Amino acid sequence: MKDHFKLQRLMAINQLIKEGYLKSSKIIRAMKKVKRELFMPVKYSKYAYADQPFPIPPYNGLQTISALHTYPIFYEPLKLKGSDKFLEIGMGSGYGSAVAKELIGKKGVVVSIEKNRKTYMFGKRNLSRTGYKDVITINDDGTKGYEKMAPYDKICVTASCNKIPEPLIEQLAKPGILIIPIGPKHPSQDLVMVEKDVSGKITKRKILEVIYVPLIGKHGYEN
Asked: Total structural domains in the chain?
């Protein structure tokens, strides 16, 4: 079964390369190393390398492990590197945090926030049992960021919002990059890259159109 998953992983990664999602050798190596099947509920693990989202606890329709191609969509333009302090809003299954940690390595810092308690526990357990215990996990409202460890060189938000939460802009380093899906809850949003330069000036550009669940919180969509 282990060899079966390895073969599926390599085939899925090759497909992402062919489709143009995966370009960086560094991200390819990270995705080859992190075993997505270990970050999925057991009942879905056999589908680990299908390029689609799957439900995760508490199975309320709002919490998912994202489709495989979405990770390079974020990580290619973020260009995560060893000295980065990286903030992930929406830990989910923990898979994205694990890939980020592989990209950043021991010298960098990965902080991941998850609002839903059951999802948080699921992701935290997955990270712990797969050897990513050094990822800092926070069970709180991600729209507020995590001021205690700010500023962050890179920030990604894995849920959609109608506007960029102001605390995330404030907690972004100079220079820094933030990527977030912006738009209505349905049917789709624009994945937007926000760059802050050394003077604090903000520029924005659309990367592509995406579909994400809504970001719930004080500076996002309210419950």
From this structure: 1
